[in-house]
Structure formats: structure tokens, C-alpha cells
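Hi Y.,

Following your request, here is the sequence exactly as I used it, all 121 residues.
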Amino acid sequence: QVQLVESGGGLVQAGGSLTLSCAASANIWSFSMGWYRQAPGKQRDLVATITSGGASNYADSSKGRFTISRDNAKNTVYLQMNSLKPSDTAVYYCNAQTQSPLPLLPPVNYWGQGTQVTVSS
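Below is the corresponding structure, written out as C-alpha cells. Let me know if you'd prefer a different format.
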């Protein structure tokens, strides 16, 4: 029901910055949004999340360097990444989560296609 399109990835040197964007096809005002990443051969891990109320949560590896934000009027979520490290290299995925329309069921998750971030040393 909700399509997510990431953009802003690319190649950057260590210490540089990138801003990722996630454009949603529907109103996201009630959604919890997040960014996850997956390096080659590894599992998909949380980077940061932001609730519909604006409360954010970060993985330890992201704290102090990354900032997640949202613009509900534009149906867009951002991830500002500073002081990038080679270990940040991964495909970054946008996530949207909403409460299940049925009781006693887990939330519904939507995922984007992903955008590649490569950090060179």
C-alpha cells in the first residue's frame, strides 16, 4: 500500500557527509519511520528510527554522527550522515511501520528498494 523510494546515496570519502531521503507514496503522519542498512554478507541492522511524535532512536554506531528527521507535509524522511566511516558502507533501506488494522497483531512494515552508500578510506 505504501511505496518508499530512497535517494541520496553515493560514494564519499571517510569523514565526509551524505543526506539520504525517503519519499513515501502516502501520508506518513501516523507512521513510525526508520533507516536500516545491510552490508554485503551481513544481516540488515537498524540505523535510526523516528516515531510519529518525533522521538528518535539510534543504533550505537550511529549516535552522535547521524540524524534522522521527518517532514510529514512532504511525506519524506531524511538521514543526515556525518563523519562517515568505511564501516558505514552498506545498502540503506527506508522503513515505514504502522499499527496493524487488526487487534493483537504486530505492526505492518513497508520497505524501500535501498540506496547504496560507499565510504572509501
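The first strand starts at residue 4 and ends at 7.

Thanks again,
Q.
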